[in-house]
Predict the structure of Glycoside hydrolase family 38 N-terminal domain-containing protein.
Amino acid sequence: MHLLSLIVFSFWFSSGKTFGEDQPIQTFVIPHSHMDVGWVYTIQESMHAYAANVYSSVTEELSKVKERRFISVEQEFFRLWWDSVASDTQKKQVWTRIYNHMISYLY
């Protein structure tokens, strides 16, 4: 999952204190894919170079910790991975993760 970008959201909770006082900060790290289809390399080059590894490793990592989540934003890479790389076991795992809201897709 080292190729995944991370979006970090920080939320400042004031709980009635004035600005500038010591206040807790809660941070959320959300792994997501960000591979621009056809930007630098062809779709096939990108798929074989890194995209296939992202989806395979995400599928594996989500099975380790049930609280993990992943957001996919490139449906073309996912479709290619599904059609040409994913095993039957990985496909079953993906369906389970989608059903359990562990994988989301942005359109």
